[in-house]
Design a protein that fits this description.
177 residues, alpha/beta, Glutaredoxin, five-stranded mixed sheet, two-stranded antiparallel sheet, 5 helices, 16% strand, globular, peroxidase activity
């Protein structure tokens, strides 16, 4: 009986109805990289988000290593790192399997990676459309957006700002307190 109750609660929490009280830009269902599974970003409600537009064949692709280090260091403190592969700058693989290989095999990424999508312009995915309106669209790959847990503040860091830079670490630590 206890197992059935726990299972019922888990199903209820995962259902779309549980996102009804999520009224911000994260209430969107997006497909994960190389998967049929989708994620509603509202499941990360009340947690700060580090959202990054990524590319597999960019001079900044090595930042995956530091993004993974951030994920490992701060995931238990509430930080959620999510990558958004994009070919907007013509540096992403054409085949999603190849993108997944770069992320998961070459760089050992364990944080959530979404399916390839646009991150700027009229065709930007809903998350990056909002980020662009509020903080400016990415001008290149590996722009990092730190979104506060209450979704009211967005800090943008350019490609050249490394994930483990003092600037990014200080901003993250302010958000997880």
């Amino acid at each position: 009986m206890i197992k059935q109750t726990i299972f019922a609660v888990a199903i209820a929490l995962a259902s779309p109805l549980s996102f009804a009280n999520c009224d911000d830009f994260t209430n969107v269902e997006l497909r994960k990289l190389r998967s049929k599974d989708t994620v509603n970003l509202c499941q990360f409600k009340d947690k700060p988000l580090l959202l990054v537009n990524t590319a597999s064949n960019c001079g900044f692709t090595g930042q995956f290593e530091d993004l993974e280090k951030l994920h490992q260091k701060y995931k238990d403190k509430g930080l959620v790192v999510i990558g958004f592969p994009s070919d907007d700058f013509f540096q992403e693989e054409n085949d999603e399997a190849d993108t997944a290989k770069v992320c998961f095999i070459n760089y050992g990424v364990t944080f959530t990676m979404m399916a390839t999508s646009d991150v700027r312009g009229d065709d930007a995915n809903p998350i990056f459309k909002h980020l662009g309106e509020q903080a400016g669209s990415p001008k290149w790959n590996f722009y990092k957006y730190l979104v506060s847990a209450d979704r009211k503040e967005i800090q943008r860091f350019g490609s050249r700002t490394k994930p483990l830079s003092e600037e990014v670490i200080t901003a993250i630590e302010k958000e997880i307190r």
